[in-house]
Structures are given as C-alpha cells and as structure tokens.
Amino acid sequence: MPGGAGRPGSSVPGYSCQNSGATLFHGRRPYAGDGKSAFLPGSSLGRGVLPAVLRALHDAAGPDVWKQAGGLPETYFTAWGSLLEGLKLCEEDTLLVRGGTCSLGYAAIRLAKAMGCRVIATTHKESKLPLLKEADRAVLDTGRLAGSFSGVTKALELVGPGTLRDTLRCVKKNGIVCCTGILGGVYTLNDFDPIKEIPGGVYLTGFFSNYPDQRTMKDIFSFIGSHQMQPDIGALYRFDNISEALSDMDHHKVDGKIVVTV
C-alpha cells in the first residue's frame, strides 16, 4: 500500500507496502518517504499489523507508479528467493511451477522465462489455463502429474504439502523441489517417510520470505527494470474498500496481486 497507511498504533491488514512520499515509522524513528518498500514480518492475510514496526527497505524502483510498485516487493522477493536460493535456477533448467495461477506463480513464471528457462505451469481450473500464456506449456492439474511430462529439473511447489509427494516424482534425478506455497490449504505432511517418498537423487527444500534484505531487493528491481517486467495487478482498491478487497481475496475472485491505495 502506498503512502502512510496509518498512524503508529493503527492496524492495517497486509504484509508489504510502498511509500511514495509520506513517512514510515520504525519504533519512534520516522523514515522519510523517498521511494521505499516495507515488509511486515510475521503478518498474514487476515491479521492486523502495526506500521510502527515496519522494516523499511530501500529499492531501486525510481518514480514508478505506486500502484504498480505495490505489486512487487513481497511477491517478487519470494519468487526470486525460491528460484535462485532454493532451486539454484539456471538457463538450462526446465521449471515446473505447480499452482501457477496466483501472483507468486505469475512472478515465478516471468522471472524464469527472463532467465532463459523452459517453464511448465499448472492450474487446477481448466478455465484458468489461458492465464498461463507466458509459460511454454500450461497443464491442467488433476492432482497427479507424475509421468505427465519429462525433463523437469526444478519444481516450485505452490499448492503445498497436499501435492508435494507427487511433485517430488515429477523431477528427474539431481533435480530440486522447493516448497514455498500452501494454496491447497494443507499445511503439513502427515506420516511422511523421507527415505521412501523422496526419490533417490532428488532434493527437497523450501523458502521463507520473512527476512528480506536491501541488497536482494535492489537486485530484484534492477532485474525487473532491465527486462521491462510489469507486476500482475489483479485488482486495485481504495483503502475505503479494503473489506471488499479482503473478501474478494478470501473467495479467490482475483487473479494476480491485490493492491490497496491510500
């Protein structure tokens, strides 16, 4: 959200914001609004957060339109970390993005394509297959993908633990699976036997986005700028309509990032 989302002590739902000219507060110290990203560590979709404890991070976005910049920080940081830190993605890779029709999925597809990778992306709704047009191949996810394609070297699991076992069987030997999302609503693996259920020579990791740093954010904005990439803004709401925004998010009415402006 751009601008001063609220005075210190007020609750605002969300986990990242952009500041175009107002003041961000960290403890008792104000930060002048000179184009900064801010993350709200530990917050979640339905919980309030306090601007007084924002972690302010400089970025290299420049004087871009703030409704666009609002769709970048947390989403692209998570995608970037998952692809580069988790998956060690390189140009020769074929990447599977399981759960591609979400803001994180779109960002991962776009970043991977810009890096020169081949991308296979999935969705569980046939009506959303056209939304995966930037991927090299769009696949309908019926719950079982293993054996549907070959040559996948890296996989980004965004559906979560519910499909993780199957995703592990989708990558070739020496491949890596990074579990970053929980779109499927399953949060843990029950009765998971890593010896039997992780194929030999396949590696499993994850990425947690609560610890951004200034250098990484600058690298991300520089990469986005050099490739002329635009965030996927699914819907834009005024702050007065934040209840509608949260309702639309909870009911999966928006494809892409929800941005609230003040």
Automatic annotation (TrEMBL):
A GO term, aspect molecular function: oxidoreductase activity, acting on NAD(P)H
Keywords, alphabetical: NADP, Oxidoreductase
Name under which the protein is recorded: Zinc-binding dehydrogenase
Taxonomic superkingdom: Bacteria
Signal peptide span: none
Residue ranges occupied by any Alcohol dehydrogenase-like C-terminal domain in the UniProt entry: 104-219
Organism: Candidatus Scatomonas pullistercoris
UniProt entry tagged with the keyword Oxidoreductase: yes
